[in-house]
Amino acid sequence: MTGAVRLQVSELGKRFGGVIAVKNMSFDLRAGEIVGLIGPNGSGKSTVMSLIMGLSRANSGAIKLDGIDIAGWPAHRIARAGVSIVFQHSRPLQRQTVLENVKLALLPDSLLRLATEAAAAERARTIAERVGLGGVLDRHPWTLPFADLRRMELAKAVARDPKVVLIDEPFAGLTAAEIKVFSDLIRTLRDEGRAVLLVDHSVKSVAAIADRVIAMYLGERIAEGSADEVMQNETVRRVYIGGRIETVERKEVAADRASTLLDIDGVEVFYGKANALDRVSLRVQQDEFVSIVGLNGAGKTTLFNAISGLVPYRGAIRFAGQELKNLTAAAIARSGVVHCPETRELFGHMSVRENLELGGGHLSNSERQRQLAWVFDLFPILEQRQAQAARTLSGGEQQMLALGRALMMQPKLLILDEPTLGLAPVILGLLSKAIERLRHEHSLTLLLAEQNVTFALPHSDRVYVLDHGRIAWHGDPVKFAEEMSTGYL
Amino acid sequence: MIILRSRLFWIAAAVVLIAALLPFWLSAYLLGILTAAYYFGVFAMAWDLLFGFAGEVNFGPTFLIGLGAYTAAILNSNYGLPIPICVIAAAFAAVAGGILLAVPALRLRGPYFGLVTLVAVLLLQNFVVIFASVTGGEIGMTVPDVLSIDASVNYWYALAFLVLCAVLLFGLSRSAVGLILQASGQDAVGASALGFNVTKHKIAAFCVSALFSGTAGAMLIFYMGTASVDTVVDVAIAVQIIIAAVLGGRRTILGAALGAVFLIVANEFLRPLGQLNTFVVSAVALAVILFFPEGLLGYALHRSERE
Hints:
Chain A is of the alpha/beta class. Helices cover 35% and strands 26% of the residues of chain A.
């Protein structure tokens, strides 16, 4: 069924400051084919997609569309040449109707040929009806359910008859029934002879529909083949699950000292219409290390943002007996809940030392010096790099700096979101050692969110599994290794 | 939506009709205030096209207005060209200046575009002062020709000009161009992924804004009979235009004109308050911006849409 090569990506490379996002990526995309590009969060798959679309510029390599190198072209020219993208998060025109939003995609990019409106409206209607928006053409985007918004994005992307369609996280936030409808729509695109690239974090979600799957990790291709082959691939399994699960027996937290430090009770978060957290309840005791594992999109980051007061939620979150809901994010951080986000949020133009000193800004001078010396002892590389601007550090060093800055705040509860994101195994080892030291040398409570189970388990007293915004499982690491290690991927 | 649009049309038509009949009741003094307010309304509408639709904050609307006003004044005063030719030349000058400014400035993102436009105003102001022999410097220059010496005629000129500009700009904002502009302003990445050259459309919007600003600037000086830095270039005027547009309602075009008329008329009616006058008007403007960030007309439209 597949035809000629439509898109040919060769030796693509992209770096952001000191972080290498994509390295030597090469693959082909043929007409009438659905390819899944998968990889854990931070593996570079979204960067590949934005390089193809021209939203950012590659440092090396070529992207050929029907033999013409489009690398370095501006996005609008690439779009006109026949590449379309369906963004995961859309920002539709809110004052315009669904029909007008779709019509927008059909307008010419010329200031002088804008008189073709009537024909455009008619075509927009046909396209919108094809993706199942026939009943809501005259409604405004903010009145639509989430799935219809996704349909509208799909309609916009296919409106101008593209040769190549890139779809970011095609099924995120959709119910099982909606996933089936969307899969059928995507298959229609293939049957019309378009080349479709689905970018997603897990093999499972694209397995049913992709003709071929390419797996990425650390900016490089690690496997390619049918969905089954990729799922069986040893490297892929190691990347996702982290290989053999090791558990470390922990000394019991003394019962008399154990008191609930963090109490999360029935927390719900909605992003517009998408339910990101569904009645999540969990507890963390004093001095306990608890991990929350789950794939990208499960709701881990949302839960952490709720704890830190960064997103509004329903339900209650109590820290050391105090309700956090009415506190500002700054007040929550000052009370001892320190959030080390997965995006790191370093001050890129400041030096390593300035970043760290800012973390300890509330300490007295002598205490700050002591804390700084301790962080440098934990991560000696930071001491060597202390004068360097944070954005020029490598990914692993940036993660150490983010963790170091969080520790400068002298947290009572450290919430650490995916520290392993996009990091090489050797760096994971260093981070793992540092966390182990924290546990033994310090009175600290840790709530860790991870996709990489192997990294998380040795550091955990207890494990929660988060899946589609719900707590799906809860127990100790030994039990997790027995019960959950299969079927997690 | 269609009902609303036609209702909006009938309301607008009624407002225009009443405005056209005002010279039969109002004094020449009040007509003079409204005349200035109408030109001000065009400034604000032209600004809203950039801010409300293209999403770019132009802190220097008076750069474009001043270019138009001074081009017309110099041609009329120094070369004796007739008013229509001066107005057309003013429009061209403003567009040319606008392109010169926008092409490099739109390469910058975020607050830098706004800063460039602000600096442009200061440059123009300095230019006018330094080349006093041509521009009249700080004192300003008198133009020999005026539109009319009759207050009512001047008023009708201004009203007709306002209505014409409002129809053109409003029509533009509701057309395909307006759709693309809004998309570029709200989500530049999304718009370029749909195949739109965002920079090109924003430059076009800047040119349209410059065209209307420059023309209105020229008309204003042929009404007042003088051109001076204080009335058409000063940053304080730019701030007033911005406040008027935001007060009336972002992304509504017509709201900007209402905001401008409101601001100038309120300033005049509160004149008995003396020094307090500007303070009160500014406080009202601040309150509207804080509590109705969508502006007066924006708030009204939004409510009827939500219902």
